[in-house]
Design brief:
CATH class of the largest domain: Alpha Beta
CATH superfamily of the largest domain: HUPs
Shape: globular
Structural class: alpha/beta
CATH topology of the largest domain: Rossmann fold
Number of strands: 9
CATH architecture of the largest domain: 3-Layer(aba) Sandwich
Distance between the termini: 47 Å
Largest sheet: 6 strands, parallel
Number of helices: 10
Number of domains: 2
Length: 284
């Protein structure tokens, strides 16, 4: 079974030994409650790197007031079992190890954090980037792996790595979906069977926009958003935070006729559960 390491100092000693042997290191940061989406990242890391570290840390600084920090699923023993034999180490630092004193220095995201989830979760991405920077210093990976379901997060991590000079590569890997199209998420376990069926409105909306984009010509961005919204509206219980069509690199909202590629992204609340999804659109 993958070794369980709690202490950052012990992890650094293990990584230093691997470095002396010239071994490459892949890193998959998670908040636990692992599912096939996470495991696809771990498999990719195992394919590309000699050693693999998976972190499991529910990061308090990325949760806002009233969010689900206290009830976020914590399933460490099952997570560790799922990581075997793909990972060498499951790193589970304590909150005290990650935040040994009141945090006064933060990694502040740039303009790409203003829209999408950033507009609805103030401070979220500041917390994400700060904890990811801490983990990068502790793990010292060659390559790190993130899933495309959290597309905005991936873009911001890439920006941080590039602009702050972290000596590593960031891989943004495809979203893993259930057979019916629902994007895998640790929060899916909050859904009742009825809510699980309602949640399919997200992927149905994205696929409606995809069909429009592939239908020929250059569809208007407004029409793409309307196609998504029409599918979500078929579920009266669904409450929309946002539906946006943005540039896939800058995440700036697009207007007018679609040109080249665009990212359709949305956040929808089903009951008390907030779900996100996205799809890269290309014209025919």
């Amino acid at each position: 079974m993958a070794d369980l390491i709690v202490s950052p100092q012990e992890l650094r000693r293990r990584v230093a030994a691997w470095r002396r042997e010239g071994q490459t290191l892949g890193f998959v940061p998670t908040m636990g409650a692992l599912h096939e989406g996470h495991l696809s990242l771990v498999r990719q890391a195992r394919t590309e790197c000699k050693r693999v570290v998976v972190s499991v840390f529910v990061n308090p600084s990325q949760f806002g007031p009233g969010e689900d920090f206290s009830r976020y699923p914590r399933t460490l023993e099952e997570d560790r079992r799922l990581c075997d034999p793909l990972a060498d180490v499951v790193f589970t630092p304590t909150v005290e190890a990650m935040y040994p004193s009141a945090q006064e220095v933060w990694v502040e995201p740039g303009p790409s954090a203003r829209g999408l989830c950033g507009a609805f979760r103030p401070g979220h991405f500041r917390g994400v980037l700060t904890v990811v920077a801490k983990l990068f210093h502790m793990v010292d990976p060659d390559i790190t792996y993130f899933g495309s379901k959290d597309y905005q997060q991936g873009v911001l991590v890439k920006q941080m790595v590039r602009q702050l000079g972290f000596p590593l590569e960031v891989r943004l890997c495809p979203t893993v979906r259930e057979p019916d199209g629902l994007a895998m998420s640790s929060r899916n376990r909050y859904l009742s069977p009825a809510q699980r069926a309602q949640a399919l409105c997200l992927i149905r909306g994205l696929r409606a926009a995809e069909r429009l984009a592939l239908g020929g010509g250059r569809p208007e961005v407004g029409a793409l958003k309307a196609a998504v919204a029409a599918e979500v509206a078929k579920v009266p219980e669904a409450k929309v935070d946002y539906i946006e069509i943005v540039h896939p690199e800058s995440l700036e909202p697009l207007t007018g006729a679609m040109r080249g590629e665009a990212l359709a992204a949305l956040a929808v609340r089903i009951g008390t559960t907030r779900l996100i999804d996205n799809l890269l659109l290309r014209t025919a």
